[in-house]
Amino acid sequence: MNQLHRSRPLVIFLLVAFCAVWFYALSARTLVPTDEGRYAEMGREMVVTNDWITPRLNGIKY
């Protein structure tokens, strides 16, 4: 029982350290890639222009 009381602060410290590293690493990457909207817009323009061969972005051939 005495050994359990000594290891409890260590377990709490390790849990807090793990959570700090985990939540810090979450901000390292974006949730949605920045180019995802670009690909969606190119697909939308392919449907609008009915040109299935040449992708366009803002009316300019990509």
Rg of Cα set: 25 Å
Strand order within the widest beta sheet: 1-2
Beta strand %? 5-15%
Per DSSP E runs of 2 or more residues, the count of β-strands stands at 2
Give the fraction of residues assigned to helices.
Answer: 55-70%
Unreliably modeled segments? none
N-C termini distance: 69 Å
- How many alpha or pi helices? 2
H/E element sequence: HHEE
How many structural domains are formed by the residues? 1
Q: What general form does the structure show? A: rod-shaped
User: Which structural class do you get from the secondary structure elements?
Assistant: mainly alpha
Tell me what the structure shows:
By secondary structure, this protein is mostly helical. The protein has one domain. The chain is built from 2 helices and 2 strands, in the order H-H-E-E. The chain has a two-stranded antiparallel sheet with strand order 1-2. It is rod-shaped and about 75 Å long. The model has no long low-confidence stretch (mean pLDDT 85).
